[in-house]
Amino acid sequence: QQLAHDNITSLIGQNESGKTSLLEGLKAFHDGQLIEDMLRSDLSLPRVSCQFRLSKKDLEKHIELKKLDPKVRQVLGSLENLSITRVWEDDMDSYLEMGAEIHDIYQETLENVRERENLILQKLEEMNREVAVVTAAFDKASDDCELTMEKVDSVKQSISEIKRGGRRFTTREKREEIRREVGMEEEMLSKLSEVLVLKKKTLDDKKEARDAFGMKVNAGGNLEEFKKQIDESVQELTSTQESLREILQMTGMYPNEKEQRAAEIREEICRADIEKLKNDIQNLKRLYDTHLLSLEFVFQGMTFESALKSAGKEIELRKKYMDSMELAQNLFAALPEFELFEDFSSLLPNRIDLEDIIRANKRAEGYKAAINFLTITGLEYSFFQQPSSRILKQKIENLNGELTLNFQDFWRQNVGKNNKIKINFELSHYDHTNPEKSGKPFIEFWIKDEKERLYPKQRSRGVRWFLSFFLELKATAMDQSKKNKVLLIDEPGVSLHARAQEDVLKVFDDIRQKMQIIYTTHSPHLVDVDKLYRILAVQRAIEDDMRSETLVFSARTLKAATADTLSPIYSTMGARLSQQEIVKSYNNVIVKDLASFYFMKAIIALTGFKKECYFLPATGTDSIPMMVNILIGWGLDYIVLNFANSEEHAVHDRLMKNLFDNKIDLASEKMLFMEDFPDAEDLFSTIDFKKHVVQVREGITVKNSDYLKDNNFSRAVLSSKFLQEVTSGSIKAENLDEESRENLEMFVKKLAAKLR
User: Fold this and answer.
1) What is the rounded distance in angstroms from the CA atom of residue 687 to the CA atom of residue 569?
2) pLDDT of res. 694
3) For residue 386, what pLDDT is reported?
4) Residue 389: which pLDDT band, with cuts at 50, 70 and 90?
5) What are 698-710's pLDDT values in tens digits?
6) What secondary structure, in 3-state letters, does 94-154 show?
7) C-alpha distances in angstroms, 544 versus 14, 537, 549, 702?
């Protein structure tokens, strides 16, 4: 969604529609901090993507273009908008990565690397199968060789035993028999020896074949070892992250400070362990990647040492260009700072220890409000070290007066009839009644009226909230280090009176040139119907289903939102009706939408039209008949203004038939049909429309209304800006060409003829 061009954007919608979640999402995107309350019931972790418009100057300021992949550099140079996504991990830590606009480029690079790695792994798997076959063949040859050797040894032993036994016999016949037996054994030995020689050769061949894989097998074995270590480290990391989640879930629930402190120490230890494990895993993955890539070179015939060096160089070369996370992290420095106005730290406390301010103890109640207070008054810690008590008190008194006057410019409420409240602060020291802090300085805050001096907490929540809100916005606007800032405010002024809520809008308008503001509201007093372009309507996709997605409608698509979602707008219009500021008893002119309303108001101002005229914007052509019926029911006079586009032409014909039975004489008092102009913007020449409304350089060769449709411009935003420039005097009738002036004069004459 596009934020309002004047830096104030309002989110309206029913409870549970998702307004607060949008603000929390923006805050979490900026600071990466998640709390359990932000998570869904299943504790699943979010991804938050934001789109920004970054100029070429912003890009060059925060990144070295030479460190970008040429493809990425080319795409970045052609993009107006860039998305960045924050992703959370199980330990609630997060990282940034680039969004969809250049995701495919990084994905392609990653897929190329993975494809290459997969090919290496496939080849390794094939090699392992071959090694298994060769090893099995070697083992079989070894077993065969060993078995033959055993047989040779057995025959040798048998020959020895026969010869040894033959010595006992002296007869010629027996010796001859033994000689034949020995001869047979020796013949067997000779044949076995020949077989053994062959089997040894086979074994040597199988060993040589097996040994040929030796270097590759060793490299693959290293890979398995690294993978095992990575898996073990990941398991340990997961376990440690789970321990941290359990600690975080208990934050703020411990019965005393001692147990809370012990939990904080455990949290710190867990985070240190997680950081170490992540570094270990990253180093192991780098070793794994290097050894995996080295296999490719080994397969090509390199020695393992040479392959490892070549792989290491290539892995380093991959770091030549930023990856998606590095680029996102660099660009993050160019993004706005999102800050959520939160009650605990942003509401002004009764007092705050000077020590908490010096040590920047953000856990101290009211810390942020106190810092805002000091920022507005221009005070630093050294101010409170002034040795002269008289001078210190005089300076504080002067500052109290200046701050009170500044505040009273915005807070218009009185305490009683004429009593304006005042803001004071003082420097005090703890006495003996607080022995732990005795003698230590603290700043004390007061909200005074003519009769009483009370602590902030003793005042109404509305007064305390508005004061703290005022301090936040003014301090942020003054902080030169935070020029690029978006302030997020959930339900501003919920405790305030209706007039005080209008004061909130006054503060917004005062500081909108210095920061952007996004706020949620249900209050009609915080919605300006004259500036509907500021509104984003938020609702559930399925109204009765709390699990359905959140939809957001811009001002130009508000008609798609439900009546309940738009109730603040309707309430505001109702309030205006009761005050007789919009609808009168006569001279009410119904136009089809807000854009036409703004154009009509501008035309009236440009032409110096004198007659009273009250334009009423419908929410589209289809709602014009309904508005006619309402005015008729109220007994109020009306005129319907239609232009010659197909939708308004159809409504004109329908009203002519339904109300006036197609009798032109009856309809002439109530119907104004501009048959030569498709829409309100076509009353201007294309030259003036290009120059003063859309403010583009290119020539317009079609009807103005067609140009807006063809280029998807927002009529509501353009017409609103045009009206503001006319109202401010930046655009006058003399700035328009003859064609525009003639068309406008012709139009207002026709309009005047219909009015009383």
Assistant:
1) 35
2) 93
3) 62
4) low
5) 889 999 999 999 9
6) EEEEECHHHHHHHHHHHHHHHHHHHHHHHHHHHHHHHHHHHHHHHHHHHHHHHHHHHHHHH
7) 12, 17, 12, 45
Interatomic CA distance for residues 652 and 639, integer angstroms: 12
Instruction: State the number of CA atoms in the 13 A half-sphere of 745 facing the CB.
Output: 9
Helix (H, G, I), strand (E, B) or coil at 427: strand
Burial call 304-327: b when 16+ CB within 10 Å, e when fewer:
beebbebbbeebeeeeebbbbebb
In Å, what is the CA distance from 432 to each residue of 384, 435, 443, 613?
A: 21, 5, 17, 72
Asked whether the beta carbons of 345 and 369 are under 8 A apart, the reply is yes
Whether residue 110 has pLDDT greater than 80: yes
Cβ within 8 Å of residue 656, ≥6 positions away: 662, 664, 667, 671
Nearest to 186 by CA among 145, 144, 152: 152
Residues 6 or more apart from 407 whose CB is under 8 A from it?
423, 467, 470
Give the chain's largest Cα–Cα span: 161
Let me know: does 532 contact 714? Beta carbons within 8 Å: no
Say what percent of the chain tops pLDDT 70: 86
pLDDT in tens, 215-229: 666 666 677 888 899
Residues 644-647: contacts with CB within 8 Å, 24+ apart? 644/673, 644/674, 644/675, 644/676, 644/677, 644/678, 645/678, 645/679, 645/705, 647/592, 647/621
Say how far apart CA 394 and CA 102 lie, in whole Å. 60
Mean per-residue pLDDT over the chain, rounded: 82
Other beta carbons within 10 Å of 234: 14
Q: What percent of the chain has pLDDT over 90?
A: 23
How far, CA to CA in Å, does 689 sit from each of 693, 705, 718, 737? Answer: 5, 10, 10, 10
Q: What angle do CA 536, 515, 550 make, to 5 degrees?
A: 25
DSSP for residue 419:
B
* pLDDT top residue among 341 and 120: 120
**CB-CB contact of 297 with 70 (8 Å):** no
| Residue whose C-alpha is closest to residue 750's, from 684, 671, 678 | 671
Lookup result for tokens 């920004």: 52
> Helices (DSSP H) in 566-703: which residue ranges?
567-578, 594-607, 624-634, 646-660, 664-667, 686-688
**Is 297 exposed, middle or buried, given 0-12, 13-18 or 19+ CB atoms closer than 10 A?**
buried
- Rounded to 5 degrees, what are φ and ψ at 365? -60, 130
Which two tokens mark 557? 């698509």
| Residue in the structure block whose two tokens are 């504080």 | 396
Residue 530 has a pLDDT of 64
Per-residue pLDDT of 143-174, as tens digits, reads 988 998 988 888 888 888 877 777 666 677 77
**Residue 261: φ, ψ to 5°:** -65, -40
Check: CB of residue 166 under 8 Å from CB of residue 98: no
CA distance 453 to 307: 81
Residues making up the chain, counted from first to last: 756
Asked if 124 and 220 count as a contact pair (C-beta separation under 8 A), the reply is yes
52: left (phi over 0), alpha (psi -120 to 50) or beta: beta
